[in-house]
Amino acid sequence: MPIRIPEQLPAQGVLLGENIFTMDSARASHQDIRPLEVGILNLMPNKIETEIQLLRLLSNTPLQINVDLIRIDDQAPKHTPQSHMDAFYHDFSAVADKKYDGLIVTGAPLAFLDYEDVKYWDTMKTILEWAQRHVQSTMYLCWAAHAAMYHFYGIQRKLREDKLSGVFEHRVLDPYNEILRGFDPVFYAPHSRYGHIESEQYNSVAGLQVIAESDKAGAYIVASEDKRMVFVTGHPEYDPETLNDEYARDLNAGQQPAIPENYYPGDDPSQPPVVRWRSHGSLLFTNWLNYCLYQTTPFDLSQLSEKAQPKR
Hints:
Elements: E1 3-4, H1 10-17, E2 22-23, H2 25-28, E3 36-41, H3 47-58, E4 65-71, H4 82-88, E5 89-91, H5 92-95, E6 100-105, H6 121-134, E7 135-141, H7 143-153, E8 158-172, E9 186-196, H8 199-203, E10 208-214, E11 218-224, E12 229-232, H9 242-252, H10 278-294
Parallel strand pairs: 1-2, 3-4, 3-6, 4-5, 6-7, 7-12
Antiparallel strand pairs: 8-9, 8-10, 10-11, 11-12
Family: Belongs to the MetA family.
Main location: cytoplasm
Function: Transfers a succinyl group from succinyl-CoA to L-homoserine, forming succinyl-L-homoserine.
């Protein structure tokens, strides 16, 4: 949220120089406030677990947020009751005429499929294009980040031989970027993926910038200059046990997964994981809601402008 300070206060110039949003009394008296409208396109098989993780992060602000859960097709998910989907999810066609302050597109366990082989890829492309016209800022998580880069810019991910799994050290590259407001210069975040796009590939796209990255995990947060597209290649929403559950699942399936890095004390899976990413995960979502949605979206969503078309 912005701070309201007296006009001409010396601190105002310092704060503006650090790209911190301040508001004088005249502007504050004319502010209109309404609930934010946020859609979640949930592509994960365990819908309920992902809902809880994301809603927990979205709830950590004083802003009122109306959330629509969106499904990409009518196929019964493996790990979620059909009754849950019917009760709480909107078909995309039911919200296609609506405009949103924000949209979150989750990851999906589709690492080894070419995008064109994904059964809902045509619908996915439709939604990606729809978001350019109907959403102020879209956050793409993990697989969705790579899928959006491929659709909009033709950049193809590479697949790692081994899964990148663990909690990795990251560094802030643009300390004055609002999305990273309050971040420590070095912070931690979980990753769980095979796909990889080099930082240089993101930065080669006009209007995109890698703003946080890891020596081991690569680009983590990438944002467009207007902050209407935010790509997050990891999983800031993960619960403390999520990587452990994935590791146990793969073991039970007869695979030989690597132990998630920097996660168990002494790399011993019998020990409870060390949790050191949740504060920055919460801060990332709070900053996105504030600086990419609340401060930028028109009060009347019908006045939302179309995003500049990405250029390949």
